[in-house]
Here is the input.
Amino acid sequence: MKLKIDGKETQVQPGTSILGAAQAMGVLIPRYCYHPSLSVAGNCRICLVEIEGAPKLVTACSTPCAEGMSVLTTSEKVRAARRDVLEFLLINHPLDCPICDQAGECGLQDYYMEHGLHKSRFPQADKVRRHKRRDVGKYLVLDNERCILCTRCVRFCEEVTKTGELCVRERGDRSYIDLKPGSRLDNDYSLNIADICPVGAFTSADFRFKKRVWFLERTASVCAGCATGCPIEVHHRDNIVYRLMPRPEEGFPAWLCDEGRMTCKSLRAPGRPAAAFCEEGNLKPAAGLRFAASRLGKLKPEQVAIFGSPFMSLEDNLALAELAAAIGTKNFCLHFSTEPGIKDGILKNTDHSPNSRGLALIHAVYGGYTREQFSERLASGEVRFVLGRNEEVKAALAAAKTDIPSSVFSFSDEPAPGRACVLPAASHFESDCLFINYAGRLRRARAAVKAPEGVLPVWQAADRIASMLGAPIRLETRAAVLERLKAKIPELAAAPLSDDKAEFELK
Ligand code: SF4
Ligand code: SF4
Ligand code: FES
Here is the structure.
């Protein structure tokens, strides 16, 4: 059907709202209660527009387009209505703006500057007071005075998580958002409420007052918290990651789970190893690699075991597989059995690792023992040294009921007592790398911050160790690793591995 918006003709599918049609033309109509991933509530009235010939203004979010309609989004009537709506919403709004952590991404502040700019006719002393700084859940703080009752938060809990913890209490200017009796806002996706709240009513307990948002730099990346591999934006400044936010990408909802958002906490945690912790004491990362190489160099190939991991990238696992081949040991494992799938109907995956499909591709080419066989090898007494990711080596040694000296790569602050050497490794926040998610989609993590000095990604560490052992694997640069991935893994031969934009899915 055809209609005109601000005099320009457009064509839309029947059922499209005026707001949707305008947005498709690049005309931004203000909105508070409307959210593309929630049902339409039509309660805030900020999206009022004029239809030529109609007696009253209509809400653009809830009014469908009609054939021949002529919509005006910036007429004098519309601008007056927006001012009135803003004046109404601000009657009882507290004068918190200078200290409110939503500043910089607050719909009230932004629209007031664009459409309001009125002088308040209501004395500050007459404002209705409500609860402030309420602890409503593990990750959220609620300030009822700042709420404009758009009900996005209530609809999110009803429609997305279906946990229904929130409700609107009372009537008129006494209305406020509250927890239902006996509830806490502790569902697995609660932090999305801080994102969708258009004002500073719901804020993240973890992020608030840490950094003004206009100082943050943003890097497009992916979450490595599970096999779903959600698109994220890493918000950082001065080499510190402050928060992870959802990034729009086709095929993914606009949410992140709370667990995934907290994956950045292992970075810069007080115990995160920036030095190599070896039997000889704390060494610089490069000296730690020399220590690991010297231990490996004293052993026969079959006395060395190498452990790949679905928690490490394609590049890291490829380099470990190449290292095993260069050393000549058959004792390596690139296997991980899992049954991935979205477990809650939203995002969270039954598989907690970001790259089990990537590891399976490398396993198919390089072979190696299954986890069970590897455990038997560790228990056999032949193996004298294990190299791998801390958490997996620990679990494998525990399963094999043995305690073989090992050099482990550590991305986190998890302690690794009893290891011969803990080698710090650059995480996916600190180095560009690739994962393949449960659906076979290539996921690109981008370095947002720098790793501590001398700390390398595992693939580069494996390359250095191989060179020190006199068995070079020639993976000095990321370009070399990507070339090797393409050459060795048939499924990746056509993949645009170094191209930022192209999408790729495994057949
Ligand atoms: S708390 Fe935020 S999201 Fe919830 S109704 Fe109020 S303004 Fe809307
Ligand atoms: S669902 Fe998985 S990938 Fe998505 S945010 Fe949560 S942990 Fe990260
Ligand atoms: S955005 Fe249309 S009524 Fe709120």
About this structure: The chain is about 25% helix and 15% strand. The chain has a mean pLDDT of 93.
